[in-house]
Amino acid sequence: MMRTHEHLNGALPLLTAGHFRGQRGVSRVVVGTDFSLRSEFALARALRLPLGQGGVFAVMHASPRLDGHDGPGGTVSGERCLRKAVSSVCRRLRHRVDVDVQEALRQGDPVEAASAVSSELGAELVVLGRPHVTYPLQELAGDSMVRRMVRRLGASVLVVVPHPVKPYARPLVAVDFSRESRRALELMLRMCPAPTPVDVLHVVDTRDEEEALRAKGAPTERWLLLRQEREYTARVALGRFLAPYRETGRELEVRVRSGDAEVGEGILAEVAERGSDVLALAMSGANARTPLTERVLARAGCDVLVARHTGSRLSTDSRSAL
Hints:
- It is built from 9 helices and 10 strands.
- The chain is an alpha/beta fold.
- Strand 9, helix 9 (about 290-300) and strand 10 form a beta-alpha-beta unit.
- Helix 6 (about 205-215) packs antiparallel against helix 7.
């Protein structure tokens, strides 16, 4: 059980509508752990995030149900390991007397437990560990814990890969000009406060138009000109999209490239070229299933932030923000 409870409305938008107000840090963070090495990386990353004033930092573990019997890997050993992890967090945050450190020990399915804990706390961010990307590349398995967490949780999820933990220096946000991708950018700006520069990417998909031109026998120069025109239009739109944040003094770099907007190859290529250490994507709608997000999660060599806000009302066909 939680040592202390704070019931907040997790469905509230991250920020109210209007210009970005320059809020710093995240206020309610839940870190899921199974005491593995990847969970240690996730916990170390969460402790590196800027925490807002009066925040909550919860460490959660779900133990299997043992029908009242204790044993290795069961409730008792899980409680001891969790208490040790929470004690370590308290030592790291000893100078942040305004932050409420909590422990959450639950029984049953980890995904259901994480969903319940994040809902009770009104969590803004759930931090999880993920193994290194392996080659040849594969999609996330149907029973992958990361896949299930991203699909099930109503909060934003930061999926952490094992690598040296230091403050983010090369964040990348992929946007499509939707309200959801705007909020993904806002969350990234809070996680990476000034003076950290943030790259903002929009992928222009001209495949259908190019195919139509080829079918008509148009010369190569025609569809190349089309691509250039679309990229220029996207740069102008992205500049307007970022104007409110630049007015606050944030350094934002515009990135536009052509590619297939549905499979994420353009996003992954930008991550590799820029050497990004964290990538943000947006997702909306409860239990949304987005092949793009899951493909990026499976293949990205950096941390991935899946920013999710369930307060928006979207049709089933428009649940994917990217």
